Amino acid sequence: MSKLLQYIPVLLILSSCKGQETLKPDPAAKAKQDSIVEKYLKQGAWKHNYFSKKWNEYIDEGLRQDSTISYLWQQKAMPFFKQKKYEVGLSYLDKAVKYDKSWLDYRAFMKCIFIKAYKDALVDFEECKKRNNNGNIMDHSYDFYMALCYLQLNDFQVALSILKADIDKTEKEKGLKWIHFLDLFYLGIIYYELADYDKAIMAFDRTLSQYSNFSDAKYYKGQSIALRGDTKRGIELIKEAKNDFEKGYTINEDNSLYEPYPYQVNWKMVHF
Fold first, then answer.
1. Which residues contact 18 (CB under 8 A, 6 or more apart)?
2. Is-contact 34 43, C-beta < 8 A?
3. Residues 88 and 116 in one domain
4. Buried b or exposed e, range 187-219, using 16+ CB within 10 angstroms
5. CB atoms < 10 A from the CB of 101, how many?
6. For 44-92, how does the pLDDT look when each residue is reduced to its tens digit (9 = 90+)?
7. Could you tell me the residue range of the domain that residue 92 belongs to?
């Protein structure tokens, strides 16, 4: 079942287990919450655009019926992030986490990619790892996002150690085919920032072997080639990258529609 179809019942029995909460749902409370979600979310808000007033009105009515349904708080928060109203969205998302800690990794993701509060995101991801080792959110591991946070904080060596270890672990346990091209792209970015252009180019080549028209990878590969001394070839590759971008080949994560990802090329700032 998708995580976005999970919500927590209001009546909980809490017991200690190595410092973490064990949640035992009350069947009657769960049935009541199910009916609220069905009426005000599935048959209400979801029948309207999530930027519309109706979306909020239905969710608010559901929360008036039961203010402890974490899923309703998350759904109320989500449109505000997509409108770049981060503080508003976070105030509601904090409520979702309050009533169900399983939303903690979603909040960490939003802090990393949307809000760009990297230190805060790291705090959340560290807590997530205590609860769920190195789990996944939005198709990537917690370590992937932690590496992005350290990259954005200019702590390149820490970013490298985290991301490389995550890639090596994935390759050992699942094989090369399981390594996502974005993992390799950001590995190349870290090497690029460390001025290790040979390793950067190798990482970008591995990325491009999966996504041959990936304009951002070609751009940074071109930069690396130029900085290594072959300016002509570097510029040629950057021009090729721009053509790929104009055809729509860039970072294709679902949420990149709303937020640029770290190091995603702003072509308005690129001059030949």
1. none
2. no
3. no
4. bbbbbbbeebbebbbbbbebbbebbebbbbbbb
5. 18
6. 999 999 999 999 999 999 999 999 999 999 999 999 999 999 999 999 9
7. 31-99
Of 66, 99, 132, the position where a domain reaches its end is 99
Q: In this structure, how many other beta carbons lie within 10 angstroms of the beta carbon of residue 125?
A: 27
Neighbours of 270 (CB within 10 A): 13
Judgement on whether residues 185 and 233 belong to the same structural domain of the protein: yes
Please check whether residues 194 and 265 belong to one and the same domain.
yes
The answer, yes or no, to whether residue 272 has pLDDT greater than 90, is: no
Within a domain: 231:
yes
Which pTM value belongs to this model? Answer: 0.88
What residues contact 216, with CB distance under 8 A and at least 6 apart?
185, 241, 245, 250, 251, 263, 264, 265
For residues 190 and 159, membership in a common domain is answered with no
Is 137 strand, coil or helix?
Answer: strand
CB atoms within 10 A of CB 43: 11
Same domain, 142 and 92: no
How open is the CA angle 244-248-112, to the nearest 5 degrees? 105
CATH code for position 61? 1.25.40
For residue 243, what pLDDT is reported? 97
Distances (CA, A) of 161 to 82, 132, 150, 164, 168: 32, 20, 10, 5, 11
- Secondary structure (3-state) at 27: helix
Per the structure, the count of domains in the chain is 3
Whether residue 251 sits in one domain with residue 208: yes
pLDDT tens string 174-209? 999 999 999 999 999 999 999 999 999 999 999 999
- Give residues with Cβ within 8 angstroms of 177, minimum separation 6: none
Separation between Cα atoms, residue 170 and residue 73, nearest integer Å = 34
